[in-house]
Amino acid sequence: MMKKITIAAVVIGATFLSSMAISQGGEQKSPEEMAYKYRDSVFHALEWKSGQLGAAKASGDAAAFKGHATDMASLASMITEGFIPNSMIEGSLAKKEIWENWEKFEGLAADLEKGALALAADGYDMADFDPRTFGRTSCGGCHREYKARD
Question: What's the gap between Cα 29 and its chain centre?
Fold first, then answer.
């Protein structure tokens, strides 16, 4: 639980600091722009942590693997917060289908969280981890339907 709070504090703090820097520069960001920045930060952190799972597996570091998987679960639990109404702003690759199929989108975010928790579970053998399969099922399943191609 403490790890989840720490990750949330870092992401929220980074978003707050970036908004303060922008505000001090004279340009005020809208709530929709801030939501986009928030979710973009969460997704970049997830991307980093996903890569770290493979690195931990390659080095044989089970504790790091479990830690990265736990962090991913915490980050996954934060995804939907960044999708406020009307936040399909310029630069966003979010599709309108997110809001049209909100319950399904929430379910996919919850599935990612559950999948990451399964990787972090005691008894999970990281030798069974295949980043290609994990990415296709946990990330790709959502991206195909809800993310525009960049």
Answer: 22
Per-position DSSP letters for 5-46, written without gaps between them: HHHHHHHHHHHHHHHHHHHHTT-PPPHHHHHHHHHHHHHHHH
Domain extents in the chain: 2-146
**21 Cβ partners below 8 Å, 6+ apart?**
none
The rounded distance, in Å, linking the Cα atoms of 106 and 120 is 21
Q: Give the CATH class of 2-146.
A: mainly alpha
Whether the pLDDT of residue 3 is over 80: the answer is: no
State pLDDT tens for residues 87-139: 999 989 999 999 999 999 999 999 999 999 999 999 999 999 998 887 776 77
Evaluate the CA torsion angle 26, 29, 34, 36 in order and state its sign. negative
Q: What is the pLDDT of residue 51?
A: 92
Residue 54 near residue 45, CB atoms below 8 Å: no
Residue that the structure tokens 């790709």 belong to: 140
